[in-house]
Design goal:
The chain has about 400 residues and is mainly alpha-helical. The protein is about 85% helix and about 0% strand. It is built from 21 helices and no strands. It has helices at about 1-10, 15-30, 35-50, 55-70, 75-90, 95-110, 115-130, 135-150, 155-170, 175-190, 195-210, 215-230, 235-250, 255-270, 275-290, 295-310, 315-330, 340-350, 355-375, 380-390, 390-400. The N and C termini lie far apart (about 65 Å).
């Protein structure tokens, strides 16, 4: 219907043409038809400029920024959001300004800009609360939770997402409830609460599939794969990856594709298929480095070290581990999914070639990092699960006590 509307609307009805283009742009994003969406993004920017309307210009750049984020162009995404913010402020539109601040958090977090991401996350939450718009608030709760999760405050991330899901259920907003559940399920995996994670993620994927949102359902299945792997079900994990990775490739979602390769590598590693796992980790590392997501690239590098060590290729692993160790000690673990696995990989590799001093240092640093993250989890049961139920967390505690 929207295709027909855009085709039939005459050029001298720009307002109606704007509404039709904006609506179609949203639908194309839901369906994952990215080339067509990019074309509509450009058309929206051009039309907003023609109309000399800052509200419309803010909306156009917001849509363009969202599209750029999907394909992993995070710097370009942030530039588009900045243009949108400038237009929204000229228009005095605080609602849109609040939403854009929330959207900025994802790109800043992915690119490892920790301090700015934290400031913007808090500002976005405060402004959404101040203006009292729950539609903006639920989006900002989701985006802020990404920052808090990736920089070690998983407890707060869970609290924000539980609030998000409750609001969306009250409003019967299926799309954002799906988003909330899919993100919440992943946080439960991070806490070692795998059974709860699987239940929540299954519901989120069902909602996303029910409304035809390909990207949300694909990410939900990625998270389900990790939950099943952590639950000792590698076959089920592999099945979810078989369904999600081709979808993310079709959507041109480069971060999602890389995450899928990383999770596939983890499954293969768990099954003892180290050569295949090594190839998947290497593919993930290359993509993540190219799009600037260094934290997750470090996770993939650590996976390569583990696989090379398992294959007896110590010298090759040694070439990878020095830069990884330097990053962990100089820049920290922000943006990493599996920091404890990285510290254990370094410790094992250092020990393999006789550097016992650095091996002990890796265990010690990893243990202190783990405790720092655990101390930020206010719920005692969650904190206990985080330390005892996540395999690499339990392993590094045991290793530290043995040292």
């Amino acid at each position: 219907f929207l295709d027909r509307a855009v085709r039939l609307l005459p050029k001298d009805e720009p307002e109606r043409r704007w509404r039709a283009l904006l609506a179609r742009d949203e639908v194309l994003g839901t369906l994952g038809e990215m080339e067509a969406r990019f074309a509509d993004d450009e058309a929206l920017v051009a039309l907003a400029r023609e109309l000399k309307d800052d509200d419309k210009l803010a909306a156009a750049y917001q849509h363009q920024g969202y599209s750029l984020g999907i394909v992993g162009q995070y710097q370009e995404q942030l530039e588009a959001y900045q243009m949108a913010l400038e237009a929204s402020r000229r228009a005095g539109n605080r609602r849109v300004e609040a939403m854009l601040l929330g959207l900025e958090v994802e790109g800043l977090t992915r690119l490892g800009r920790e301090k700015r991401a934290g400031r913007v996350a808090e500002e976005a939450l405060a402004l959404a609360q101040e203006i009292g718009d729950e539609n903006v608030l639920v989006r900002n709760l989701t985006n802020a939770s990404l920052f808090f999760s990736e920089y070690g405050d998983i407890g707060r991330a869970v609290q924000l997402l539980e609030q998000q899901v409750a609001i969306n259920r009250r409003h019967a907003n299926l799309q954002y409830e799906a988003v909330g559940l899919i993100n919440l399920g992943y946080r439960y995996v991070q806490l070692g609460m795998n059974a709860r994670a699987i239940d929540v993620l299954t519901r989120g994927v069902e909602l996303a599939l029910g409304i035809g949102h390909r990207q949300h359902s694909a990410y939900g299945r990625l998270n389900l794969a990790l939950a099943h792997l952590r639950n000792g079900e590698p076959d089920r994990a592999y099945g979810e990856l078989e369904a999600s990775i081709p979808e993310l490739e079709a959507l041109q979602d480069r971060f999602g594709q890389a995450a899928g390769q990383s999770y596939l590598a983890l499954v293969k590693e768990a099954c003892g298929e180290h050569e295949d796992a090594l190839g998947c980790f290497a593919d993930a590392q290359a993509t993540l480095t190219e799009i600037g997501v260094q934290g997750c690239a470090n996770d993939a590098t650590a996976g390569m070290v583990r696989c090379l060590l398992a294959l007896g290729r110590v010298e090759e692993a040694r070439k990878e581990v020095d830069s990884l160790w330097e990053h962990l000690t100089d820049r920290g673990t922000g943006g990493m999914e599996f920091p404890a696995l990285a510290f254990l990989a370094c410790a094992d590799l250092f020990a393999a070639y006789g550097d016992l001093g650095r091996s002990r240092a890796a265990v010690e640093t990893g243990y202190r990092e783990l405790l720092d993250r655990a101390d930020r989890i206010g719920d005692p049961a969650w904190r206990s699960s985080f330390l005892e139920k996540v395999p690499e967390h339990r392993a590094i505690v045991v290793r530290w006590k043995g040292e």
